Amino acid sequence: MHLFDSEIISREPLAAEIWRLRLTTDTQFVQAATPGRFVMLGLPGFGFDPFLLRPFGICRSGADWFEVIIKVVGKGSRQICRLRPGERIRVHGPLGNGYPDPDLNASEWLILVAGGMGIVSLASYIFNTLKNGFSLKKTILLYGAGSKKELVLSSEINEAIISGLEVHTITDDGSCGRQGLVTELLHDRLQQRPRSIVFSCGPEAMLKGVQKIILENHCHGYLSLENRMACGFGVCLGCVQPVLGSKGSDLLGNAKVCTDGPVFPAWKVVF
After folding, report:
1. Cα torsion for 25, 30, 31, 35, to the nearest 10°?
2. Whose CA is closest to 163, among 130, 194, 195, 200?
3. In 34-168, which ranges are continuous DSSP H helix?
4. What is the pLDDT of residues 202-235, one digit of tens each?
5. For the residues of 157-170, what is the DSSP string, one character each?
6. For the segment 116-143, what is each residue's pLDDT rounded down to a tens digit?
7. How far apart are CA 31 and CA 12, in angstroms?
8. What burial letters (b/e) apply to 126-143, b meaning 16+ CB within 10 Å?
9. Is 138 helix (H, G, I), strand (E, B) or coil?
10. Confidence of residue 46 (pLDDT cuts 50, 70, 90)
11. Right CATH for 2-95 from 2.102.10.10, 2.40.30.10, 1.10.1040.10, 3.30.365.10
12. Where are the beta strands (DSSP E) in 26-151?
């Protein structure tokens, strides 16, 4: 990880209060930006309003750039999204531990379960797979959101379909795909593909449901947590998450989501 000032290459609105920023970086950063890792972003220089950097998942990267997708939820994210191309931004990262290599065998499938802005974390896996020249023929994306207006990256996901990605959407109001919760789609797919590995990112309530389904079906799964973070490197303890010490154990411990995660085996997380 390293701390540096980056230049904003482009800023693009994707939906109401959701922006895509493309930022300059170097080869060392790009090589380290594996799927599921994140950065802390903030205004350049030293200030007190806001004082802390904000965490955002790395969506994808190129030879000398990377992208983040930001939903405006407060002062920090709003100030970042107001920055224009050519302006500078403070970057700390890449941080955390991302998704493992699923290493699928002949009978296994990979199911990606995204809720809301959790699509950013899982899109990083999709984009990285395509960038490295691998197929998505045994990969299924289950994407849930409140409404059609909240679904982002539609054109990029459609391009991934050409490379074999199977996509199913679901919305709370039924404005895109069927009406319901993304956990319903996961339950259905695991009935059809019981030998699957699950990667998931989204709100805690959704992750609880995903975890329950993974454990009931005795399949391997990984959850990317979205706990609030203040420092990003394990000092402040603001993102601590209760976890199990070992599989099948009742022994509780605490993990720092920023350094031990944000991706954890599904069995390990205690909600």
Report:
1. 150
2. 130
3. 75-82, 119-131, 154-162
4. 999 999 999 999 999 999 999 999 999 999 989 9
5. HHHHHHTT-EEEEE
6. 999 999 999 999 999 999 889 999 999 9
7. 25
8. bbbbbeeeeebebbbbbb
9. coil
10. low
11. 2.40.30.10
12. 38-42, 54-61, 65-71, 88-95, 109-115, 139-145
Cβ–Cβ under 8 Å, residues 58 and 38: yes
Nearest to 59 by CA among 111, 102, 9, 19: 19
pTM (2 d.p.): 0.95
Cβ neighbors of 53 (< 8 A, separation 6 or more) are: 40, 41, 42, 90, 92, 232
Alpha-carbon dihedral sign for residues 16, 228, 6, 77: positive
Please list, in sequence order, all residues whose beta carbon lies within 8 angstroms of the beta carbon of residue 31, skipping any fewer than 6 positions away. none
pLDDT tens for each residue of 70-94: 999 999 999 999 999 999 999 999 9
* Three-state SS at 71: strand
Domains of the chain, residue spans: 2-95, 109-225
- Nearest-5° angle of CA 170, CA 141, CA 224? 100
- How far is it, in rounded angstroms, from Cα 178 to Cα 174? 5
Reported as half-sphere exposure (CB side, CA atoms, 13 A), residue 51 has a value of 3
| Cα–Cα separations (whole angstroms), residue 224 to 27, 50, 109, 114 | 25, 26, 19, 10
- Report phi then psi at 263, rounded to 5: -95, 125
Q: Which helix (H) or strand (E) holds 211?
A: helix 204-216
109-225: which CATH number, 3.30.43.10, 3.40.50.80, 3.40.50.20, 3.30.450.40?
Answer: 3.40.50.80
